[in-house]
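hey can u check if this looks right to u? its 417 residues, i copy pasted from the old doc so theres a chance i mangled smth
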Amino acid sequence: MKILYRLKQIALGALLFAMASSCDDTIEDVGGAQQNYNSVYGIIAANTNLATFTKAIDLAGLKSTFDKPDDFTFFIPTDAAFDAYLVKSGYVNSLGYPDITLVPVDVLREVVLSHVVKGVKKRVGYLDGVQADYLTTGELSTMANAEDANLYLLSVNVTNGVLKVNGSDKPAPGVDYYGTNGFVNVLDNVISLDPPAPVIEGVSNPSPSPGEDIIVKGLNFVQVQNVKFDGKVVTFKVLSKTEIQVTVPADYGSNAIVMVQTVYGTSNVATLGIKHLLFGDDFDGSPTPSWTWNWGGTEDFQNTEVVSRGTKSIKRENKDAWSGLMIGYNSLKVSDYQYLKLSIYSTASTRILFSIAGQEDATGIAVDIKAGQWNNISIPFSSLHTELLTTGEFNSLFMKEYSGLPGTVYLDDIGFL
């Protein structure tokens, strides 16, 4: 099989080289560059090593669309790359071999059109003395984008004459094969412009009231199917690809786990509310925790300078790099909670390590904190090494400056969900 694949690759290079050699440098519409007399569709159809893509064109009913003198730039996967895509997507026959005839026509049409830019002819490699429309790093609108505005644009990276497409780390093995009406670029990957699964980055109010409208912020909110609070569908309105307005249900108690589902996948979770509040304006009526241990800094447990909610916050001045603070409290059961929650404000962008399983780096996880805003943090217990808590209980929260730079942070609404 490897020998046959190698022979196919050699044949592909030889054929495309022959096409490029059979050329004419007097055709002005490509800036004086040498050009093959065949059309770009003719180049594709004549190349047996691009047979899978050619068959995809036919099965999708697009031959008449491309077999015309209109200008096109094609980005075409090799047969090996297309076959790998078919296998990964589950389009295989009873023997396990890739079978393009199993791909639904609408899916195949989107796949093909995602590889074509209409009305543009662009070169990749610069040619001395040639004035042309060169392909540069950026985004292009494909023929698939014209049919479906929800699809992402085609990302193109050109660095030192090397072409990479659609975020792939695989360089295109062949570029700038030109015909009478455009260019063909051969890829080692199949392009997909489908949006990724949605990502929740935060909520406008982490402690809402029943009936309140909040904003869920994130990425890839495209073709949203539902928003769920603890598995129950709630009322929502998509404002943009990065924001969804959600109405907190009437039966909302004090906390919930929120997820967004789109046609393209299910998001990570966002958390609302707190089951056990460790610090709001105080520690269950006490201005200070049960016990503390620290080094390299000072803290004010009744600070009023910068507050997220209520009237007080914890001000921690990290006077030394890598300084730390440990807060003690009555023991809680690991099995009762899933997340550590807190709000943190920093005067400079930094990293803070959090742990409930000890004060060693390996027991916690470091989180990036953006400066000049309240960061609402939810850390799953699965990231906090609760397996190290052999008694099944925890009674401390450890925080360590983890950027190597001194600074001041404020903490509020610390608790567990």
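The chain has three domains: 2-187, 199-272, 276-416.
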